[in-house]
Amino acid sequence: MRGRSAFLFSLAAVGWSVLLLVGAFTFPVYGTEDSSGAAQLVNGKEVVVSAQSSSGSATLVDENGTGVLLVTAVPLVVVLLGAWLLHRYCSRGSRWADSLAWALIVVLTLFSLIASASIGLFMLPAVLLLGISAALTRPPLAVPLGA
Predict the structure, then answer these.
(1) For residue 109, what are the contacts with CB-CB under 8 A and spacing of at least 6?
(2) What is the 3-state secondary structure (H, E, C) of the chain?
(3) φ/ψ of residue 146, rounded to 5
(4) What pLDDT tens digit does each residue of the chain (147 aa) get?
(5) How many Å apart are CA 89 and CA 105, to the nearest integer?
(6) Which of 35, 69, 82, 135 is deepest in the core (most CB within 10 A)?
(7) Which residue, 92, 103, 113, is CA-closest to 134?
(8) Are 104 and 126 in contact (CB under 8 A)?
């Protein structure tokens, strides 16, 4: 049962990371405003005769270019690698895979804290989901009888 739950949490972490990458293209995070006007001289003074203003929204990619995809792809790559390492630990008992998966979780946590001013907070669900998955892959602690 723990293995199935760990797999589902890993899958949810991957799904969240994919949504983060897709959201960079689709989710409006910036407000935009355009204004234009025509001026005319009346009695030696400049007077605005007509003005137009429009507002809208922009996505991360619209505002920052495609280079932002590198930042939003990092969680997906790290989560995919972490999920694979956790699978390796579950299926083969590889201790290095478990240690490396935990190291990736720490790195992703630090990355999301550093980037918290922009998209870091949106990465935290993936970090938490992968951390829960990693915790579930560990065998439960044995409690001695009579303790």
Answers:
(1) 127
(2) CHHHHHHHHHHHHHHHHHHHHHHHHHCCCEEEEEEEEEEEEECCEEEEEEEEEEEEEECHHHHHCCCHHHHHHHHHHHHHHHHHHHHHHHHHCCHHHHHHHHHHHHHHHHHHHHCCCCCHHHHHHHHHHHHHHHHHHCCCCCCCCCC
(3) 85, 5
(4) 677 899 999 999 999 999 988 888 887 777 665 566 566 666 767 665 555 555 667 777 777 788 888 888 888 999 999 999 999 998 888 889 999 999 999 999 998 898 888 778 888 999 999 999 999 987 655 455 555
(5) 15
(6) 82
(7) 103
(8) no
b (16+ CB within 10 A) / e for 115-130: beeebbebbbbbbbbb
- Neighbouring CB atoms inside 10 A of 57's CB total 12
Q: Where are the domains of the chain?
A: 2-29+60-137
pLDDT of 100 reads 95
Tracing tokens 């065998």 back to the chain, one arrives at 139
The first and second tokens of residue 94, run together, are 């590889």
The token pair at 76 is 């997906």
Contact of 128 with 10, CB cutoff 8 Å:
no
**Dist CA 61 CA 45 (whole Å):** 43
